[in-house]
Design goal:
Blueprint (H helix, E strand, L loop, with lengths): L1 H13 L7 H22 L9 H28 L2 H25 L8 H21 L10 H4 L3 H10 L5
Helix pairs in contact: 1-2, 1-3, 3-4
Pfam family, one: RSN1_7TM
GO cellular component, one term: plasma membrane
Protein name: CSC1/OSCA1-like 7TM region domain-containing protein
Length: about 170
């Protein structure tokens, strides 16, 4: 995650100075997409899920990268002799950071993060409950019928009509 955020920071910072940096950036992120998709699909077996915590961290890294690119661009404007443009970018960096913090505080509550010990405890409780229920009531195939199967389709109505014995 850190190397991808660093590559994003480099691409976002230097694309204003030299737009040709986007070509290696596109190649890097396209290759990373293929490799990480393969790895996450076929190779990694997670012991537990984070409940979407990676997106919060990725969003935070993206906000910091965008703010850093604003500051780097302001430094380039100062070096080129136009400090007025640099001063215009400072509120943009502050506003971007503030908006990112607003979104994080609005869409992420502290109770979303569950410690692994609590998740294991919940799993053991659910397993004990399932075991208790399986001992009390035997499995019946008719206990649950999927809603799609419950509603008769025209082709099913025809086959059901021929499968039934005629009324007496």
């Amino acid at each position: 995650l850190v190397d991808m955020c660093f590559a994003f920071l480099i691409c976002a910072s230097y694309m204003v100075i030299s737009p040709l940096i986007l070509i290696p950036g596109i190649i890097y992120f396209g290759t990373a997409l293929v490799i990480y998709t393969y790895q996450f699909t076929y190779m990694h077996a997670h012991k537990y899920e984070t409940g979407g915590n990676i997106w919060l961290r990725l969003f935070q890294c993206s906000i910091v990268s965008v703010c850093s690119s604003h500051v780097a661009l302001a430094a380039v404007f100062v070096a080129q002799g136009s400090p007025k443009l640099a001063f215009l970018l400072v509120p943009l960096a502050i506003g971007t950071y503030a908006y990112g913090q607003l979104l994080i505080s609005r869409h992420h509550s502290p109770n979303q993060d569950m410690p692994i010990a609590a998740a294991i405890r919940v799993d053991h409780t659910c397993a004990a409950l399932e075991e208790t229920l399986s001992q009390k009531t035997p499995f019946d195939a008719e206990m649950y019928v999927h809603p799609v199967v419950q509603t008769p389709l025209p082709s099913r109505q025809h086959s059901r009509a021929t499968d039934r014995p005629p009324p007496a």
